[in-house]
Amino acid sequence: MAQEGNPGNLTVLWLQAGSCGGCTMSALGAEPDGLVASLERAGIRLLWHPSLSEEGGSATLRLLEECASGAQSVDVLCVEGAVLEGPNGTGKFQLLGGSGRPMAQWVADLAKRARYLLAVGSCASYGGLLAAMPNSLEAVGLQFAGDEAGGLLGDGWCGSGGLPVINVAGCPPHPGWLVETLMGLSLGQLRAQDLDGFGRPRFWANHLAHHGCNRNEYYEFKASAAEPSQNGCLMENLGCKATQAPGDCNLRVWNGGGSCTNGGFACINCTSPGFEEPTGSFLETPKIAGIPVGLPVDMPKAWFVALSALSKSATPERVRKNAREDRIVVPPRQRGP
Amino acid sequence: MSRSLVIGPFNRIEGDLEVRLELSDGQVAAARVTAPLYRGFERILTGRPALDALVIAPRICGICSVAQSSAAARALGEAMDLVPPANGRAAADIILACENAADHLTHFYLFFMADFARQDYCGRPWHEEAARRYKAMAGEAAKAASAARVRFLHIMGILAGKWPHSLALQPGGITKSVDMGERMRLLAILAEFRRFLEERTFGDSLERIAALDGPKALEAWAAEKPPTAGDLRLFLDIAADLGLGRWGRGPARFLSFGGFGPADRPLFAGGLWQDGRPDVLDLGALREDLGHTWMDGDPLHPADGRTEPKTDKAEAYSWCKAPRIAGRTVEVGALARQMVAGHPLARGLVAASDGRGNIRDRVVARLLELAILVPAMERWVGLLGVDGAFCDTADMPRQAKGVGLVEAARGSLGHWLSVDGGRIGGYQIIAPTTWNFSPRDSAGNPGPLEEALVGAPVAPGQDQPLIVQHIVRSFDPCMSCTVH
User: Fold this and answer.
1) What CATH number belongs to A207-325?
2) Which ipTM score applies to this complex?
């Protein structure tokens, strides 16, 4: 058992519920050399992972039984994917292969034994895309259904480690969010106050995806892109919610240097419950009287309107022109030759 | 003596799978392949604003995410009468090739080879070396490949923002232009990945591997060095010892939609291969049969298809539909793609195996594609122009139809879209593993994996026969896509 001051030997069991496998694929991209090496260095041991382990079939079912009975201790149960309670509460939309039992039951049984429960990705956290309308799957997260507390395990669930479900949300989550959360648990450094109201670790969720955006100058001057591939800010027209989305996506960057906004497309606020049901469409900013419906968090509407008007009137020609191009057509003025 | 065997949960594949075997006289007499998860993406898509498919479709699958993106972008592009400019196409090709190559690498080093490290093979001449290299989560080559994969996916950081689940691929191209510094970084990443493949995987140049023109050339190449020189040679040695070329035989019919490069001169030509020769692909004869699927309805073309779950259906045993062309199954994947495209190594290997795919040839075809794709990606970076647009735009018509056909790592992927009042009226998806792992159809014809498992030897008392594991994984199944 991992304890404070006794790093290492944290055991992790990983199940895929109603998932696309993308959280695992993202996690395998952990810098600098992948998930397995990153966990190994931290003394974290994967008891079983569906994509990585040698054993499958009956050997895996035996292991899961042992974990459920307590014969094998599990420090962290990682669940990737939404829990499918349908049809009609039976859970039969996902049976664990070889067992004939709904995955929802396996997760509920194993949750009783694990010290910590970690939802990997927005589906396991809140239901995510699988809970999108019409949600005929009856998809829920482990401790939330959308933004309502409850989910599979209920509002009051708390593991023997003293924490509610830890929601490493995101579609997919950044590999660093997962690895660092597991390392924090291993070292006893993740406390209840380190999680936000939706169970997300604050070390990444206390930032906004907007922080560090490489389009910052266009944002400041409200010089907006109108079409994909243009340099300008993506908030006014192209659906970007980075000023509302929890995440340090532009501070730590993805796949060696990228991010959604860096790639030229909107942040869709994938770390938040309900991201799957945007107002209107994902890629177009809904507006009322020309003003975006979704304003930057903590910003009073009147101030946003006033500052936007002022910014637009002060926009340098360079920024205005470059915003509607896919390359820099007007470079910053040089001092000297 | 006969008995039955249920194998599941299957691991080191993508998603959920269960296989039921009827055993008789020490071999598989019949197999039933079950996809035990339903997700209903086609229903989630219906009624949404049309371009929302760009957000939702990639999330069908986290490992074929770009392929799903690409198929959605093409279906929407056809509906909008929009084709990406040359720069956008080259960038999109690099992004898709990056995913396909990364998937081939992951399959070989993390999913497939780990089975040869198992204790069951202790005593085989190659076992000690296989265990040292490929043991799950511990093998030296598996770790090196994981690190190489992380670095290779930095291509996605440059071109697609992130992987998986990017929105970079649009109907009109990609969402960002690529400057000189980025082009140089792309070349540096490709050079590093090339070195991994040449030093580790092949022990030879990629060009030499891509130029192998038949089984004899492959055999002669392998004999040049000891079997431990590179991972392809070690695999061929293992395959010869275990007779992997004899098992897992597919339906002798291969499908590929082709792709990469301009439509009139693709890198891989598409089409159908059956009766031992290339044939015209008539997608009009495509139907999805629901005879043994937990769904309601008649066999329909995907342009008219529906997705109506029905759990109380006695004869059903899978959530996977059963796509058939003119009533017949086809195999898809890297081997099928290279068969259809006419690569002499793929055609030669299959010809030497009664015209059918098998475990060994599917694995060889994936490695062959790695040797073809990386040099092609280097060429495409050179095509990313200094001038010219990366993305064009057009309005979405109120009423329209579109089809997006793509080759994902695991084979042919199709999206059939109809737009009604600017919203998605219908959306049907046929993913690669839907073809390969389909259940029986109404006429009782087994799916390709079900056929491939028949005849596999299973010793009495064995409850996890490794030959079954090898056959299943040789298809590199993606059940996530299958149960969209």
Assistant:
1) 4.10.480.10
2) 0.96
